[in-house]
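thought: fold this chain, then report.
action: predict
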Amino acid sequence: MPTDQALKLAQEADLDLVEIAPQGKPPVCKLMDYGKFKYENAQKAREARRNQTNVIIKEMKLRPKIDAHDYETKKGHVVRFLRAGDKVKITIMFRGREQHRPELGFRLLQRLAEDVTELGFVESAPKQDGRNMIMVLGPHKKKADAKVDVKAEKESRAAERAAHEAEERAERDAAHAAGPVAQKKERGRSENLDPEIEA
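observation:
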């Protein structure tokens, strides 16, 4: 079809003539609303960016001679990071004579990896890097799935809390409506301790 005829068709249909394949013999064109086409492409790109997840590597630093309670606290942080779908880089820092006992750090990292096996896996095995020993844990769940789970958990907790508050409010209202409020005791003038003073 000649170009001028195609342009005439596009003007009659109140559309744009868009060249799709200029290298083709003959070139391929299409009648479309170009503004709408650009808008829809921008929407698709925005949606793709929103759904795209960037994996963040969180870092947790430990010492070989860590106390049991401190270990549990750090493990709790690691669990939280893995639940959120983030990778965790665990660094054990050796100081002084501790550097000659890397097996202590290795055992600690193995223990931590065993404690969080249901949430994550060892992505890179423990390896010595100067004064530090490093291990990376990766989550079993993808970031998007973890986000959905965390959101659902938050909503269920909020619903539970709201139900509990409504129940407490109903109990308070029932107790308030059931009986009159305790009457205040009538207060008279206090008796004087000295009998000679008249009231």
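thought: worth noting. Residues 57-144 form a domain with the Translation Initiation Factor IF3 fold (CATH 3.30.110.10).
final: tokens above.
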